[in-house]
Amino acid sequence: MDEHTLKNDLKVVGVVGAGTMGIGICEVAARYGQRVVLFDVNKASAEHAVGALHERLRKSAFKGKISKQEVKETIDRIQVVDDLAHFSSCDLVIEAIIEDLVIKQELFKRLEVITSSLALLATNTSSISITAIAAGMKDPSRLFGMHFFNPAPVMKLVEVIAGQQTNPEWLKQAKAICKYWKKVPVLAQSSPGFIVNRVARSYYGEPLKMMQEGLATFYHIDTVMTEAAGFRMGPFALMDLIGIDVNYAVSQTVYKAMFNDPRFRPSLIQGEMVAANTLGKKTKQGFYNHHEGAANPKVDYVHRDAQFNQLTVPEEETFFSEMFCDFEYNQRKWQGDKVIVSGCELRLSDGRLAKEVAAESEMPVCLVDLSFNYKKSKTINLCFSPEVNQFMKNRIVACFNQMGKNVLVTDDQPALIALRTIVMLINEAADAVFNGVCSAKDVDLSMRYGVNYPKGLLAFAEELGWGHVASTLENLHQWFGDDRYRLSPYIRHLSKPSREI
Questions:
Q1: 190, 224, 257 — which closes off a domain?
Q2: Cβ within 8 Å of residue 59, ≥6 positions away
Q3: Helix, strand, coil % (nearest 5) of the chain?
């Protein structure tokens, strides 16, 4: 379906539900020329939502982002109705109501009767099975998912989700519509959490587990994940923004739907916070204090002015050693096969403790946490083996300080913070592909455009090295003895060298 065909065939879009997502979808369709029919069980709420949209667009026009004419045309295209019967003229209907299976089933039973048999029917559900919703319909092949991300007018990603009986032709048309709206569509099979909410669980679950284990504070973890690893927002700040209750509910839903798979195990910490009604920004208190003028804890960076007398960098540049290659200082730089600062070897963590690595090394060891881009990172997170004396520590910290980086020191722990979290994300992305939920291309697009990750997870794993990902996960599995860290066969296959024939 090309753009010209869409202009002719997609004239009226129906939206059920005038909440944040519903009104956002209305804006998307209306901005691209479709007439929008909006229904909510509370008509006054729908009218208020359109009024709020009008005000937001007026502010955008005042800032010069859109014209006043565009504002008028967009609002004029949205019609609030008080009866679903008005949806009889719709070419596409998108439901964005409460996450309740029975209520959604009842809605689509009515919509398939009201609308033309050629009208596309979509649900914006973020967690309920498309197959289960469609089971209540006479023709379940008509239903598919169109999962937008908040805010819908801004976020590029739309998950187009196939139920077990969805007509493939409707999926093709849905993807074409998304592209017409300048969105990035990805195709997923109906499964718990679809792509983003499945893969991203580790971004919350693993930091929560580290905090519960007493390995680091929430603000230390957030700083590592943003300033060192390169994520836009730390997991705890993000949970506060989403709402602890919402995040916890999604975790519980996915965990139950995945038959209590330990990779999706909800956090006891979140359960306690929900019980205490400390839900994040909306209650002014979550992990952080959101009251006006409140002071929140900050990490203690380590700074040293020591003069280090040796820096050895491998002649052959690696993913880890590249950050040292352009570093110039007033001492001599040697070449070798390791990164060494003042008699201490620096390595990217592989999921073992620093003391374990040092036991097989010829010298003391400093392990460095993972970053999507070491050259651009503001901060480096380190841990040391017991043999690293204060003299060495001072010179290693000074080296990174002279490279323009802040330094954080974490207790010796398996895979540190960023590496542990990222390999769990990679493992889940890989397992989604292995289990036929989506393609490798689409899982990477989903995490880049749905949750703004710095890079696609599988593309980054290729850059880092599948063998390193595999060994880190296997070391974590051995350390914890928890099936949560079991290695996806997808990674196992890619990390093994091919046998010669």
A1: 190
A2: none
A3: 50, 15, 40
The two three-digit tokens of residue 5, written as one number: 């065909």
User: CA 443, CA 435: separation in Å to the nearest integer?
Assistant: 12
Model confidence over 125-163: pLDDT tens digits?
988 999 999 998 999 999 999 999 999 999 999 999 999
Cα gap 281→278, rounded to integer Å: 9
Q: Is 126 an annotated catalytic residue? A: yes
- Asked if residue 429 belongs to a domain, the reply is yes
Catalytic residue among 95, 112, 124, 147: 147
92-95/120-123 β-pairing:
parallel
Q: Are residues 256 and 170 in the same domain?
A: no
Provide the token pair at 96. Answer: 């964005």
Is 55 tagged catalytic?
A: no
Q: Which domain holds residue 97?
A: 3-190
Q: How far is CA 385 from the centre of its chain?
A: 33
Q: Are residues 397 and 425 in the same domain?
A: no
- The dihedral built from the CA positions of residue 134, 138, 144 and 148, taken in this order, carries a sign that is negative
Question: Which pLDDT band holds residue 326 (cuts at 50, 70, 90)?
Answer: confident
**Domains: count for the chain:** 4
Same domain flag for 15 and 116: yes
Catalytic residue of the set 159, 206, 428, 474? 159
CA angle 225, 230, 233 (to 5 degrees): 60
Active site residue 159: yes
Residue 306 is assigned to a structural domain of this protein? no
Q: 35: closest CA among 82, 95, 83, 86?
A: 86
* Per annotation, catalytic residue among 197, 342, 446, 495: 197
Torsion (CA) 282, 283, 289, 293 in degrees, nearest 10: 80
- Domain co-membership, 140 together with 34: yes
Please indicate, yes or no, whether residues 259 and 167 belong to a single structural domain of this protein.
no
Same domain, 242 and 324: no
Query: Residue 110 in contact with residue 138, Cβ under 8 Å?
Result: no
- Residue after which a domain boundary falls, among 357, 390, 409: 409
The contacts of residue 123 (CB under 8 Å, 6+ apart) are 94, 95, 104, 108, 130, 133, 143, 144, 145, 146
- Position 299 in a domain: no
Distance, C-alpha 146 to centroid of its chain: 18
Band (3; pLDDT cuts 50, 70, 90): low
Q: Specify whether 423 is located in the same domain as 349.
A: no
Q: Give the domain CATH number at 468.
A: 1.10.1040.50
Residue 423 Cα distances to 214, 244, 391, 430, angstroms: 20, 24, 33, 10
Catalytic residue among 27, 124, 126, 488: 126
What type of residue sits at position 488? S
pLDDT tens digits along 177-188 = 999 999 999 999
The answer to whether residue 290 sits within a structural domain is: no
State whether 36 and 166 are in the same domain. yes
- Here the tokens at position 160 are 């187009």
